[in-house]
Every structure is written in structure tokens, then in C-alpha cells.
Amino acid sequence: MPQPQPLSASHIGSFAYLTVKDRLPVILTRVVDYLYREKDSLGNNYGKAAREDCKKVIGRCSQLKNEMQTNKDLLPLQAHPDPSYPYDDANIWNRYLENYIRVTGVAPKWFTAPWLYVECYMYTRIHESLYLCNVLKDFDPFMDQKRNALIDSKEAIEALAVHVLSLCGRISTFSQEQLKQHVIKLIEISLWGNRCDLSISGGADKSQDSDVLLLLDKLQSKILVNNSESLWQLLVALPEDQRDIVLVLDNAGFELVTDLCLLAFLTEAGFVTSLTVHPKIRPWFVSDTTHSDLTWTIEKLRETGGSAGVLASKWQSYISNGRWKIVNNKFWTLCHDFADMKEIDPELYSQLSKSSLIIFKGDLNYRKLTGDLDWPTTTSLEHTLRGFCPAPVLAIRTAKGGPVVGLAPGVSERTAAVTHDWNISGEYGMIQLCTFS
Ligand SMILES: O=P(O)(O)OC[C@@]1(O)O[C@H](CO)[C@@H](O)[C@@H]1O
Ligand SMILES: [Mn+2]
């Protein structure tokens, strides 16, 4: 079967088109407005030079918005000025750019290049506008939004923490069947946590304001593929010393908490020998988790106290004793999809190959798993991975614009008949496992 075309803003009226035309400029405008509003307080906190930096970033982001809206060529990136910065990736981005020109004969433009590339490129340019600064080089313009999203979800977080702590305290009393049901429930909670992303809403409030546990039954019918049962079979079959789980994170805020709750329960229940968590190395798709978001979240919840505080201390102790590792890698913020990993980052591919299960959270990871190609929805997930098979893959995402694959025949048609924007609204989700067996 020939490979489908990449999703692209060249298809007028498509979600990719509307994203580049409407949503991305709004996100850039918000960055500009935010820096404009905060320049005095940044000046007070970081010194006078920060005010100058603000002006420069505002200028660069306004320029970027103009390039986007007038469909200019995508320009090469400037290298990070600090030669010791470990995640400089400008050369990898520029190589992609040159290769695109070599293959297609034209420069990539905002409305014609693959959507995955264009959207990742925008966040890299935002980061570039910052790392070229003197004082604000490490500043995250989405930090306040991410922090507020966590604070606004505090009741839902506390309700979840009460539940998870109570489960952790009773593990030895559970039958295998009960244990399975609890694991599956926590996977579903982590799935619905993925509805809370700030890039889809252009940065508008996206917190969890209700107890997600009470919603699970009602949401069952919105899970279009649920391989939780097969996942359970995989988990129980893993030898005790080979339960090495990797989680490629998505959003901070409520989603991150649901992910850490799932991981804590798996750890407490003995399903984890080692766990590696991969955050992003730059501000990314507004709400994605960076290392410092992760650290801040744990600290903030500990400070807040209650059951969430107790749970956060548990997470902290796993990190401190080395059972959970946080690994920073620049591959996750490149434009490359995961089928390119073997070539672009063979070391990461080989590290991942040593794990027993890799969990990918969220819509963007799903887009990168499937290459963001316009697959028929009945194509198998394994086929769409195009040779990316370091270890069993578990994809957990709500559908917010990327491809949807692995559906039974008729499911997409039936779902579209009920909800016309079913594949972009985040209302429907999937838990898909690929074991390559
Ligand atoms: O990866 P996440 O946080 O689940 O979603 C990120 C996201 O909102 O950004 C893209 C559109 O801008 C979509 O592909 C996707 O829905
Ligand atoms: Mn995200």
C-alpha cells in the first residue's frame, strides 16, 4: 500500500489549514501580549536587561507571525549562542529544511509544508526568539498558563489523590482481577487527562474542574479502541526484573498528575523495575511538560498538602532513590516523526529498545507515531509506525486533529454521524497497544 500524504495546511478548510490560519497566530499573539504585560515585572525580577530582552522577543514573535500569515518560506534557525548548551538542534532543523528543498525543489512554506513540521517549527522559533536573549534565554512564556492550569484543577487533583492513596494502601488485599480493574481505571483517567491541553484552546483555560472518577463510566463509549485488557496481559507476563517502563510525557497540569498517579500505582503494585520519564527540553505546544514543570508540580503539590501532597512526596522519593529517572532528550522537540528516530537519534532508539513498554501520551506523540499521514482510519497502528518498533508501544490520546488509526470498519463513520468533529474535539479517545507479535 503506498503511503498517504502528510496532513498539511494546503488543504483549505482542513484542521491543519485552520490551525495555521487561525490557531497558531492566536498563540503567538498571546506570547506577545503576555511579554508586553509582564515586561515591567520581568524587569524587576531579572534586572533592566530583561526589559530589553522582552522588546526583542516581542519583535521576533511579531515578525514570525507576519511570516506565517503571509505564507513566507520557513527560514533557517540560528544556533544556540552558548556552545555548551546540550540541546542545540538548529543544525538538525536546518538539515531538514535543506533536504526538503533538495527533494521538492522549493522551500517549505507555512501553508504548503507538512503540518507536523510547520507546527513544531513555530515552537522552535519561539524558543529561538528567547535563547538569543541575554537574560531571558531560559524563560518559558507558557509557564504561568501551565501553573494556573494545575492550580485550577486542585479539587479534581485532590479527589484523584485520595483515591490513589487509598488504593496504594490496600494493594495487598486486592485479587488479581481487582488489581487489573484498578490499573485499567487509572489508564482511562490518564487518557481523559489528555483533554486538558492548552494548545488546542489557544491557551484558554483548560483545567479539570470535576472528579474524573465519577465520569469514567459515562465516558466508556467515547473510547474508540481500548486495548487495556491486552496491556494487562503484557504487564503480568513481564519477568520481575524486566519491568522497565518508559513514559513519553505530554501536558503539564491535570494530565501530568493523572500520568504520575498511574505510574505510582504501577510502581507500588510491583509492575515497575525501573521507570524513565521523558519531558520536553523547550517550551512546547503551550502545555507540554518540561523538566522544570515536573519539578515545580511536585513541589507545589507537596506545599499544598492534603492527599495530593502525600502522593507528591511519594513521587519525589521514587525520583530521589533513582527508581524513577527523568531523562531530557532533544529528539522529542524536533520535527521528525518516530520512524526517523533510528537514523536521527540511534542512541535514543537503542535506549528505548531496552525497555519493556513505552507509553506515549497525547495527540502530538500520536501524530509522530503515525507520521501525521492521512491514513484511512482502519489502517493498523503497527503499519502506520513504519518500522518504529523499539519495544511494545502503548499510545494513549484523545483525538484532537492528528490521524486516527486502528479503528474497526464502520467506527469512524458511526462516530462522525453522532459528532461531526469527533476527531478534533478531544471528546473521543483511544488506548492502543502494539506488541509487534
Ligand atoms: O499532544 P496534545 O497536547 O494532546 O495535543 C496537542 C495539539 O492540541 O496540538 C495540535 C494542534 O495544534 C494537535 O495535533 C493536538 O491536538
Ligand atoms: Mn501537548
Automatic annotation (TrEMBL):
What keywords is this UniProt entry annotated with?
Hydrolase, Manganese, Metal-binding, Methyltransferase, Nickel, S-adenosyl-L-methionine, Transferase
- In this chain the Damage-control phosphatase ARMT1-like metal-binding domain maps to 19-412
Keyword Calcium: yes or no? no
Q: So which domain of life are we looking at?
A: Eukaryota
Q: Name one GO biological process term.
A: methylation
Q: What is its EC number?
A: 2.1.1.-, 3.1.3.-
What's the stated role of this polypeptide? Metal-dependent phosphatase that shows phosphatase activity against several substrates, including fructose-1-phosphate and fructose-6-phosphate. Its preference for fructose-1-phosphate, a strong glycating agent that causes DNA damage rather than a canonical yeast metabolite, suggests a damage-control function in hexose phosphate metabolism. Has also been shown to have O-methyltransferase activity that methylates glutamate residues of target proteins to form gamma-glutamyl methyl ester residues. Possibly methylates PCNA, suggesting it is involved in the DNA damage response.
Q: What is this protein called?
A: Sugar phosphate phosphatase
Source organism per entry reads: Cherax quadricarinatus (Australian red claw crayfish)
